[in-house]
Amino acid sequence: MADVKFVFVTGGVTSSLGKGTLAASLAMLLQARGYSVTIQKLDPYINVDPGTLNPYEHGECFVTLDGAETDLDLGHYERFLNVPTSQANNVTTGRIYQTVIEKERKGDYLGKTVQVIPHITDEIKRRIKLVSSGNKFDIVMTEIGGTVGDIESLPYIEAVRQLKWELGQQNCIVIHLTLVPFLAATGESKTKPTQHSVKELLEEGIQPDILVLRTERNLSTDIKKKVALFCNVDEESVAESVDVPTIYEVPLNMLEEKLDQVILKKLGLPLDKEPPLTEWREFLRRLYHPKHKIRVGLVGKYVELPDAYKSIMEALTHSGSFNECKVDVELIHSEDINDLNVSDKLAELNGILVAPGFGSRGIDGKIYAVKYARENNIPFLGICLGMQCAVIEFARNVLDMDGAHSTEIDRKTRYPVIDLMEEQKSIIDKGGTMRLGGFRCLVSKDSKAFEAYGKSEIVERHRHRYEFNNKYSEEFKEGGMIATGINPESGLFEIIEIPQHKWFVAVQFHPEYGSTVLKPHPLFVQFIRASINNKLSDN
Description:
Elements: E1 5-11, H1 19-32, E2 37-43, H2 55-58, E3 62-63, E4 69-70, H3 73-81, E5 90-92, H4 93-106, H5 116-130, E6 139-144, H6 154-167, E7 172-179, E8 182-183, E9 188-189, H7 192-203, E10 210-215, H8 221-230, E11 238-242, H9 250-256, H10 259-267, H11 278-288, E12 292-300, H12 310-322, E13 325-333, H13 342-346, E14 351-354, H14 363-375, E15 380-383, H15 385-397, E16 405-406, E17 416-420, E18 435-443, H16 448-453, E19 457-464, E20 466-468, H17 473-479, E21 482-486, E22 493-497, E23 504-507, H18 522-538
Parallel strand pairs: 1-6, 1-7, 2-5, 2-6, 7-10, 10-11, 12-13, 12-14, 14-15, 15-23, 16-17
Antiparallel strand pairs: 3-4, 8-9, 17-20, 18-19, 18-21, 21-22, 22-23
Helix pairs in contact: 1-3, 1-9, 4-5, 5-6, 11-12, 12-18, 14-15
């Protein structure tokens, strides 16, 4: 295990400072220097996973290829590193305790009293090391959720303290992200919150090796020296993270702060290869200097919290940059859309995306949005429930199936064009039981999907219980809505299109999860391209 180096990222003062973005940025820089890096997230909540959490509670639930429902920070990790994560990359307190209790029930502890120390902390350490099993990685970066001082985080901090002692200083370091607020009234940046945060960490037995100061304004050398002196950290190990227009600038800022060099120095690793970051810089150049500008409407029911659609928002950014286009995303609450105002709300859009979701709230507005896009020949992308809404709308308004619906919403509908999957009908437990993870899909040639992917077989990630009801496949085909993507094992519809439409594609899977900075998802790329062409044709 000594061959693997461990880097821990903790946070202090307040939440939402950007530990996930910082961890992803540093991992990307180390990766660019030639090291094999992975990141994991330790979440202190007692839920086994975020799969049953309301998006208002925790933002988006990110799904890995192996079918794990995980924290949205894993999306950052994949988008920055361009490497898939797995179930081992996200651990919650609920999963830790569940494992320990299961072991106790089986008698693994031989009648001993089961305690937080050593049993819970031992399980945390095992999980931390698990992601590095087989020596696949040179460096494992671990983000600890929550804020230092939270009672929920204490077992994780204690586990890190033990690991630092067990593995040695050169094999295990801690980066502490904290806040240096600017007080407008006095015109000063204040270091006291950082000092208190480090003091809290010291009381829990950990001396941070590196401090990253989140700030809205550049900090003077004197402030950095003061922080270094009062927090027992050498000056070169104090870096600032200034607010930037996009999270994709953070790696370049950390490179300028030479934080990757400091990390490698403390881990005793060579600095052989300078990170060129050519593609990353080109991505930012196109992002900041677009040739086109379009408006895309994102129709959903969680738009008050954009993090609920984090991967979609980032996929639009990636594909916008790829097309040298600024994508202005208009977040439209589906509950606010009805048949009388749909034109007013959507008329100025160059493309319409209907978002995923669960439940009946806001579904009528989504259906009206689909109808507007279909009838007005506006580029349309439907994702998961967005595809199901497209099917319902087509059934009602083109196939004359009055009252057609999903049995999730209307169990007694005369036309159940969307129905519960057969394997889901016997399920009682709600957690981790949906159709999850990567599944194969065969794509028809001469389709918009094939034009996007450029190949006839793909693997995409799923998170749903309801599917297109194949009982109605012939009616839809005759009516002009075609299945252009089908799962080869189950025959389930994965992609539907309307060939007569300018660009109308809806998918049962979640393409947004697979979009990265260096590899924007092809469906989003083509959707943005179609939206650009739509705007140009209107002018």
